[in-house]
Design a protein that fits this description.
CATH class of the largest domain in chain A: Mainly Alpha
Order of helices and strands of chain A: HHHHHHHHHH
Oligomer: homodimer
Largest sheet of chain A: none
Radius of gyration of chain A: 19 Å
Number of domains of chain A: 2
Strand content of chain A: under 5%
Structural class of chain A: mainly alpha
Largest interface: A-B, 40 and 40 residues
CATH architecture of the largest domain in chain A: Orthogonal Bundle
Distance between the termini of chain A: 35 Å
Amino acid sequence: MTMDTTPLAGLLAAVPDTDGLDTRILDAALAEFETYGLRRVSVEDVAKRAGVARTTIYRRFTNKEQLLQAVILREVRRFLTAIAEATERLGSAEEAVVEGFVVGLQAARDQALLTRVLHSEPESFLPQLSMNGGAVMLAARDILADRLRRARPGDRQDFDTVAEVLLRVAVSLLLVPDGGLRLDGEDEIRAFAREHLTRLLRPSP
Amino acid sequence: MTMDTTPLAGLLAAVPDTDGLDTRILDAALAEFETYGLRRVSVEDVAKRAGVARTTIYRRFTNKEQLLQAVILREVRRFLTAIAEATERLGSAEEAVVEGFVVGLQAARDQALLTRVLHSEPESFLPQLSMNGGAVMLAARDILADRLRRARPGDRQDFDTVAEVLLRVAVSLLLVPDGGLRLDGEDEIRAFAREHLTRLLRPSP
DNA sequence: AGAGCTACAATACTTGTAGTTCTGTCCTTC
DNA sequence: GAAGGACAGAACTACAAGTATTGTAGCTCT
């Protein structure tokens, strides 16, 4: 048996969650953070919403910061799972590129926590971005690259980089929305990806 | 005679700068902002460094914010000029893609003001990004798209979007450096652009 | 074993205030 | 048109007093 050390494995590793109380707490914390931002939420608030004593939260999570990280981790895991599932039943590599991009961009835009912090507490966003951003991108990249390799078994091209470029385009659309590309609906996103991003793939050998 | 209304024209429009005093002030302001950030610099500091009375600055610029915007505008103009010049004597469209990306990314990374604010005053960076980021990207996109069209006179493909994707990849490398792609030296950047980004171009007709 | 509850020290965050700096304008002199 | 001084109002800094929050511990109940 080998030790899993990839970012993907680390981020997608199964969670114990014996009794569902962790889940209740994380749900409450997520709801609070999404509604009020990070700064204005106290552990007490989370406890009240979860219907739990404050001390219980401290028994499960070492401190507020780690609670936040646990919330983020779960959201990241959901995000990655969404990408993984949407690209699982793979047709062509082109299809994987398109669906990976569409789902990735949409899921990121729909992340209430992310957009909340980005818009109402930008000062805490950049730090979080440099703390988690790279790892999340690597994990998502690994998933997509895997899909591409599966779709093109013989092909030895650099799928990692192709996948990362996809993701970086999505990231920049998220962070700098006011460019020439609007990409509003799912249809627009898909059309753009199909028309332009599939070109990143070399024609199959 | 037609009115120029493109972002490019607006940003690249010639500056009067009658006497060179504006330049002295802008030089001083740039140096101060690069060294100490935006918050810690007073107009007095700028005046001292420029060897000018503080009131003079207020005669030339309406307020501190507008002085900052003038500094940024000049830097943006330099940035765009660098891209425009580096891609002027165009060979193939592929060459334009590669050089545009290399010069754009390097120039952005070497912008002392940008990196200064990004790292030491992130809270003021995101607002600036949404204020100016889109326009700058549009202007740079127009320049690059123009180069591509010139290199492929008959070709009717969507060069605007190709150019924008290039730029967005560069932006994301700037904002999220800790991914799988390091792209440290000029050679690495160029190799990446040549290998992957030129694929965004459709083969010539 | 683990949640609830109370209590508690330490820390962090508000509030109000006084003092200082900075901004932006005006006016006079050169 | 620039320099320089002078000035009111705004913004920032420092600091003290009060309040809220954090994180820990002990005890009870199941």
